Each structure stands twice: as C-alpha cells, then as structure tokens.
Amino acid sequence: ACNVRIGDICLCSISGGEASNTIPANVEAVFGMEMGSCALFEKMFGEYRDAIKARFSETDPDVDMQLVEISAPEYVISKKGSDSLYNLLNTLPFGVTAKDKELSSGVVSSNNIGVLRTEEEQFILLDYARTAHTDDVEKWAAQIAEIAKEAGASVEVLMDAPAWSAKPDSELVALCSEAFKEELNIEPELLTMHFALECGYFVKKYEECD
Asked: Nearest CA to 166 among 113, 123, 203, 130?
C-alpha cells in the first residue's frame, strides 16, 4: 500500500531472520522518502501497526512495530529492485498451506521465508517448505521457483529432504505409550509435529522402518 500511495518511497536495506528453517522473530528495514511524504507515511504506519497488534492480540500479544528516524544511508535500492522484492514477498506462500483433520497438529504442509537480507548488489532470501507428502515437496519447490524467477531472481535448491508421515497403526508408538502409562501412570498425549527430520531418509531406505 505504501509503495502505491507514496510513489517516492525507496528501500535502502532489509535484514531479518536467523536461519532458513525458522520463522523470523525480527526484521529491520531502512527506507526513505521525500520530506513531504513523511506525514502520510507515519499515519499509514500507525494504522498498520495497530491492525497487526489487534489481529495477533491473543496468539502473539507482544508483537510490535517501531518507526525510528536515522541518518540518511549512503545507498538506496533502485525502484525496479524494490518493486521486484515487494512483488516476490507478496506472492510467496507463507504459513500453513495444507491441513488434515486426522493429524493432531492439523498441519500437513507449510512454507515460510527464513532469512531475508541485503548483500552488496543483491537480496538473499532463504525459503523453507515442509510437508508430509513427497509429491507436495516437488510441487512446492516448482511453484516457489517459478514465483522467484518471475520476480527476476535466480533460484538454487540447497536441501531436498524426503517427506515422511507417521504410521497411524504404529507398533512402536503403541509400545511407547503403554510403557509410559506403566511407568508414570499418566495417559500420554500423542502429537504429530510439523517439521523436517532425518526420519525421511530412514523411511526412504527402509520402507518398513517405524
């Protein structure tokens, strides 16, 4: 919205995220505009911050955004480069992309940007997709690569781990559950967790592996 209503706004740098396989906890962007646009931008920023805080008041009550004035940076990013990044960020899927009511977590597939940073004359963006189904891994990889290429980015696959799903009639889970009850006298809660593990490699090599 700012890019549309404030035509002279320019991005100078952006940095966020700690690792590709985690959802960024913080992000910092440096941008500038003509002095005459500042009042409008501050108003839009305040409205957007309030909307974000209200939206996540229950799930993330500490979420916040701050606007700080700093000295003018030495460099700014071209309008073409900034617009390409805006379009990419607005088009990439973010969050849960597929659910299954039979799973305790409900989540089958998700995608998130783990790291985004400005580096000399380019942006570096690390995207991470997770899914319980191998076919979905290939589908998401192709879709994300296409979105990135349309934005003018070059794409490299850094890791491709095979997907795997927990067995609903797992003998191992039943054995562990029974042992848990016998030793602790507590009914265990069985959960499916949504993240990538080495387990996929074991199952790929030994199909009967539990």
From this structure: 203
